[in-house]
Each structure stands twice: as structure tokens, then as C-alpha cells.
UniProtKB/TrEMBL annotation:
Membership in a protein family: Belongs to the NSA1 family.
Classification via SUPFAM superfamilies: WD40 repeat-like (SSF50978)
Tree of life domain: Eukaryota
Entry-linked PANTHER family: NOP SEVEN ASSOCIATED PROTEIN 1, WD REPEAT-CONTAINING PROTEIN 74
Quaternary context: Component of the pre-66S ribosomal particle.
GO cellular component: nucleolus; preribosome, large subunit precursor
Function description: Involved in the biogenesis of the 60S ribosomal subunit.
GO biological process: ribosomal large subunit biogenesis
Protein name: Ribosome biogenesis protein NSA1
């Protein structure tokens, strides 16, 4: 199994083999900036913010989105050869950044923090001499997330951000299908003398989607969970204060919400019963990046073959910690987490990770408990 990491200090990309704890290939800053003219001297500023791994025509590719809205495409099968570099803006804008990147239906789709959306054909994107930005448009405001609704034929997205109501938009017609409302509107002059929490939705997870309704849970920047049902109301139907700290990560693992804040606190929340399953610490930090892998039935049987008790389906969580420069692999089962593997970086902090070859998991899980304990002692994880 390989994990892609980005280096904040050099702007480079590392490919780490989890089974051997060695960096099997590393793209230097000079190589990465070879075709981007004067960007070489700005390597630290133009660090990688988002990875997007995809398959096309039997090949495997990686898109790296850098600060300043520069994207680079690498051929994973050809030793991570750089095949294309694109600058999405006419000038490099260091004040903008990627909040989401994905490949769907032969298109590269991305949204930036300043509200610029790009829908580019892969054929044009992977060509070094052709640009096609015909499907690019702006959302006019700050954006923290943009997600496509799974059942919407890839045309409906849900967006939100700082000082922005949550909205469901049809990207084909640019029409707003649904928009949330704040619980109360107060005159601006009155707000100057009252303490009012700003509107800032950090992320959402979709819990149910039909032709007539969408149910989703939104996490605010200030530790609250907002429950919405588009068929019932434009206001939140429920609200829970889940953390005192800013929420950094929100993921839906089956019926469980994985919530991580900026101070290494993780909460597993059963959203159906609205109960907290467990709380624990996971070394992530404010600038961490996480990637999740769901253990399939075959992997689950191999892991449980040595034990008599039965457990629910488990998940693997890769966490890159910005503070101590470590990459960790955690296993979560039945509301409990255990550290499986850890690697300490020798270079700079990692700003983004992306797991590829996700089906090669059992060898890592078969590592003996004594080896894990000894490794943890050496690393002081």
C-alpha cells in the first residue's frame, strides 16, 4: 500500500510504502516546477493542498492542486511522471485555495475558497497545449465545501461557507434549488452590541437523498451540528453543540459520524439516536489531513479469524499530523480506536495525504501486537 504525502517546506510530493516504512519515490521541487516557469522559487508558498486520484482507460493518475490554483497531473503507472501542468487563473492568486477536487464522468471538478468553480474535460486537462475553461463560473463569496449529491445525476451540488447560507444548486442551469435560513435576523446596528455567533458552516454529510427530499448534517466552525431536511424546513430541525473547539473533519462512517476538532479530539456520534458513542484523542492537529478506508468483508474476516467475538464493520483512518510530522494508521471498530502503524517524516510537515491501492490492507493488519507496541515506544506516539 502506498500513501501520497505533500511537504509544506519544499512543496514536493512523497510516496511512502506503508509495508516497508520507506519513501520509495520522491518528486523533488526542481522536477515539479520544471514546466511552471518562475514557480520554482515559490515552492514553499505553492504547496499541495488537495490530491485527486483517479483511473482512466486502464491507467492510474494523480492530480495535485497547489495553492495559487495550479494543478499538475502525474502518471502513477509511469513512475509518477509529470504529464501536464495547468494554471486555472490568469495570474497566480496566493489568496485562493482548493476546497474540493474530484473526477466524475470524464470531468475534473473543483471549487476554490473564493467561490470559483471549474468543470474541465479530462481530455483537455491532460493535454499540455490545450485549455478549456468554458464551464467555469463563480459562486460570489467564501466557500468551505462543495459536494455533489450522489443520486442527482451529477448536476446538483450542496455548498456552504463563511457568511453563506447552505444552498443546493443545479450546476447545469446555475439555479438555486434550495437554500437554508438562519434562525433569526437581527438588525446590523443591533448586532454591534450583541454577541452573535457568525454563520460559518464548515462541512456537511448527506444522510438520505430521494427525489423529493435531502437530509443532511452540517458542522459549523464553532462546534455545532445542524440537522436539515429540505422537505420539512429551510431552518435546522435540530441543533446540537458537539464540541467547544472548531470542527476540522466530518465524515460519515455507516451510521456513525466521525468528528475531529483542531485540538486532537475525536467524537464518534450515532446520528440516528443522537448519542455520543465514544470520545478519544487522535494526534492530528489543526492542519492535519485524513483519509478513510472501509474494511470490506474479506479483510474483516481475515482480521477477526483469530478472535471469537464478532464486531461491526471497521474503518482504517490515515492521519498526517502537522505538528510532529508523523503519518499514523488507526483502526476504528465498535466505537474504539487502536493505533496500527506509524511513520515519522524526516522532511517537512505534511499538508495533504491520499491513499492509493486501498485493497492492499491485510498485510498491515497482520502485524503482530508486540511489533506495534515496540514501534510506539520508539516513536512515542
Amino acid at each position: 500500500m502506498r500513501v501520497l504525502t505533500s511537504d509544506l517546506e519544499t512543496g514536493g510530493i512523497g510516496v511512502i510504502n506503508i509495508l516497508t516504512n520507506k519513501i520509495v519515490f520522491e518528486l523533488s521541487r526542481q522536477l515539479r516546477f520544471k514546466k511552471t516557469h518562475s514557480l520554482e522559487s515559490l515552492g514553499k508558498k505553492l504547496y499541495v493542498q488537495k490530491f485527486c486520484y483517479f483511473e482512466r482507460d486502464g491507467g492510474h493518475y494523480l492530480i495535485a492542486g497547489r495553492k495559487g490554483l495550479t494543478i499538475q497531473i502525474f502518471d502513477v503507472d509511469d513512475n509518477f511522471k509529470l504529464i501536464s501542468t495547468k494554471q486555472l487563473m490568469t495570474n497566480i492568486d496566493l489568496g485562493d485555495f482548493f476546497v474540493t477536487m474530484e473526477v466524475m464522468n470524464g470531468e475534473f471538478r473543483a471549487c476554490t475558497g473564493l467561490g470559483y468553480c471549474y468543470f474541465l474535460r479530462l481530455t483537455a486537462l491532460m493535454s499540455s497545449c490545450f485549455n478549456d475553461f468554458s464551464m467555469s463560473f463563480g459562486l460570489h463569496g467564501s466557500v468551505s465545501f462543495m459536494k455533489f449529491l450522489p443520486q442527482s445525476q451529477s448536476s446538483l451540488v450542496i455548498i456552504g461557507g463563511k457568511d453563506r447560507e447552505i444552498a443546493i444548486i443545479d450546476v447545469d442551469s446555475h439555479l438555486t434549488i434550495w437554500k437554508s435560513k438562519t434562525s433569526k435576523k437581527i438588525d446590523k446596528l443591533y448586532q454591534q452590541y450583541m454577541t452573535k455567533e457568525p454563520l460559518w458552516v464548515q462541512d456537511v454529510v448527506i444522510t438520505k437523498e430521494t427525489d423529493s427530499e435531502v437530509k443532511f448534517i452540517a458542522a459549523t466552525r464553532f462546534g455545532k451540528l445542524l440537522f436539515f431536511n429540505t422537505q420539512v424546513s429551510r431552518f435546522p430541525i435540530d441543533e446540537i453543540e458537539i464540541s467547544e473547539n472548531p470542527i476540522k473533519h466530518l465524515r460519515l462512517l455507516n451510521d456513525t459520524l466521525f468528528i475531529a476538532d483542531s485540538f486532537d479530539n475525536v467524537i464518534l456520534f450515532d446520528y440516528e439516536n443522537q448519542t455520543i458513542m465514544n470520545k478519544f484523542h487522535m494526534k492530528t492537529g489543526a492542519l492535519s489531513s485524513l483519509d478513510f478506508i472501509q474494511m470490506d468483508q474479506h479483510q474483516q474476516e481475515e482480521e477477526l479469524s483469530r478472535r471469537s467475538e464478532s464486531r461491526n464493520q471497521g474503518f482504517l483512518v490515515y492521519s498526517s499530523s502537522h505538528a510532529d510530522r508523523c503519518l499514523r494508521l488507526y483502526k476504528i471498530e465498535d466505537g474504539y480506536k487502536s493505533l496500527v502503524h506509524g511513520i515519522r517524516f524526516s522532511n517537512g510537515p505534511s499538508t495533504e495525504i491520499c491513499v492509493i491501492e486501498k485493497n492492499i490492507i491485510p498485510d498491515v493488519l497482520k502485524e503482530s501486537q508486540s511489533q506495534i507496541v515496540n514501534q510506539n515506544k520508539r516513536m512515542r506516539l
